[in-house]
Amino acid sequence: MPFFENVNDKFFNPFCCRNREVYFECISLLIEKSKEIPVLYETDARSCLILYLQNCRYSIETENIGEEVSSGRSPQENASSILRYFRMCGWITPQEIGRSGDNIASVSAYCRRLIDAVHKIFDTDVNSAITNHIFSIYEILKAALARDSARAIRPYSNILVPLIENECDLKNELLVLKDSIREIMRTVIKIDSANSFGQFLIKDELLNRFFNDYFFIKKSGLIPSYIAGIDRMLIKLRNSELYGQMIKEYRKIKNADEAQARERIDRQFDELDSFINLEYDQEIGYIDRKINTYYNLYSTRMLMVLSNGTNLESELNRLLLLLKDMDEEDRELALREIGQAHRLQSVGYIGRKSIERRQRPNPNMEHAGLSAGTLSEEEKRRLTEELLTEIPDRYSMDNVKEYFDQMTFDKGRLSVEECGVHTRDDAMMIAASMIYSGTAGFPYEVEFERGMVETEVAAISRIQIKRKQHE
User: Fold this and answer.
1) pTM (predicted TM-score)
2) Of 183, 262, 298, 318, which has the fewest CB atoms closer than 10 Å, so is most exposed?
3) CA distance 101 to 123
């Protein structure tokens, strides 16, 4: 296609002169202004440019464009010169008188597309761009395969072409991710101070955008399912009736025969299939490896910067060897001096309990206090006798002795199995015998053996209970 035959010979001149930044801002303002009103007249365009030039943050240099545009002229004169220059370069349509009697200053279609492309390349927020393209591909395929879909009316223009465009954009975004890793690595290598590391982590927008999009892809769990769904729907689309309609539409648009149309359509489907099933995983795997390399580089570089080029492990080893060979007095003195070189600070934090508002007691509650009563001496004596005398210790030494005296020690000893532990009281008596074993006045000894014995009540250590010899 003869691109340059469709535009003015001076179409690209505003990008190649000294005031290119001013011209780019001016044409961008005119495009935004034209979106607000039905027809952009020269009066409105001139007022817009005058307001910008009065607050212009760029210096306008003298330039010979058939008219003088410089900082030495008034904003009104420069605005008129810029409009005439844009019309001469083909950025603004030729003079045409509108209904109001003023000339129309519409921005040409090619200029709009050029400026939009420049903004898309340099100003578009790349955050979440990868996931947006994946979602777009999924939604296009889902809508195409739906019943009575409007996209099925022109399947090549409304289905296949948008799919290829999103696939190309997705490839470009993955390349941007790869280039971002390289840029991050080059920046890390240049860092030579701890302060630079802090600024790099806190203020670097490229780093933030890169990791934000990357970790969403890796951890959200949505992307793998969407990729699998795209693969299934591509196969279904290729085997449906829409495939034949795409070939017919392509033949009509491109004026090609059926073999050429089929070859072109198949090549585009193969490109989509190859990217979804092969290239995407390869690119993500490459980024994973580069991420690991970046982490290793970052940690190594930080260690070098913080150690100021000194091998701290070697120095610490030398210090310990010196302390080992010192006398006790010299070692104590050296450790005291080293201790003064380090300062430890205690850092605390305020918990939620310390800032909670205490609830005040309700003063209207009846009987809120404890009744203050006194016991008589007789009552105190009675309660004391109940605790110490009338309620005996159930597992006292005498009671345990009486319990085992009732048993028969044929061989002078008795195992847990022979004791017959059937109730909780039996198990508590066995446990009490372990406590009193070796106590003066208790005529039985307990010998522990390996293992446990499962009884009807509990699992008890395997023991042998025997009478003392002098008993």
Assistant:
1) 0.50
2) 318
3) 37
- Residue 169 tokens read as 């954009």
DSSP 58: S
What's the CA gap between 333 and 438, in Å, rounded? 53
Residue type, 85: Y
Q: Residues 6 or more apart from 217 whose CB is under 8 A from it?
A: 130, 131, 223, 284
Report the alpha-carbon distance of residue 422 to residue 394 in Å, rounded. 18
Look at residue 237 and give its three-state secondary structure.
Answer: helix
- Phi, psi (deg, nearest 5) at residue 91: -80, -25
What separation in angstroms does the CA of 21 have from each of 16, 69, 376?
A: 10, 14, 103
Cα 125 from Cα 282, distance rounded (Å): 25
Q: Count how many Cα atoms sit within 13 Å of the Cα of residue 278 in the half-sphere of its side chain.
A: 5
Whether 248 shows a pLDDT value over 80: the answer reads yes
Q: Which 8-state DSSP code applies to residue 277?
A: I
CA distance 432 to 403: 11
380: left (phi over 0), alpha (psi -120 to 50) or beta: alpha
**Cα distance between residue 50 and residue 74, in whole Å:** 9
Segment 143-200, tens digit of pLDDT: 888 888 888 888 888 888 889 988 888 888 787 777 777 777 777 667 666 666 666 6
Residue in the structure block whose two tokens are 């290829």: 164
3-state helix, strand, coil in the chain (%, to 5): 65, 5, 30
pLDDT for 405-416, tens place per residue? 888 777 778 888
Report which secondary-structure segment, H or E, holds 138: helix 129-144
DSSP labels for 392-436?
A: --TT-HHHHHHHHHTS--TTSEEEHHHH---SHHHHHHHHHHHHH
Tokens 């280039």 appear where?
A: 179
Whole-angstrom Cα distance, residue 204 to residue 202?
6
Per-residue pLDDT tens over the stretch 359-378: 776 666 555 555 566 777 88
Phi-psi region of 420 (alpha: psi -120 to 50; beta: other; left: phi over 0): left
Whether residue 432 contacts residue 421, with contact meaning beta carbons closer than 8 Å, is answered with no
d(CA 402, CA 404): 6
Q: Cα–chain-centroid distance for residue 187?
A: 22
**Contact yes or no for 239/145 (Cβ under 8 A):** no
Q: Could you tell me if 178 and 293 are in contact, meaning their C-beta atoms sit under 8 angstroms apart?
A: no
Q: What is the DSSP letter of 309?
A: T
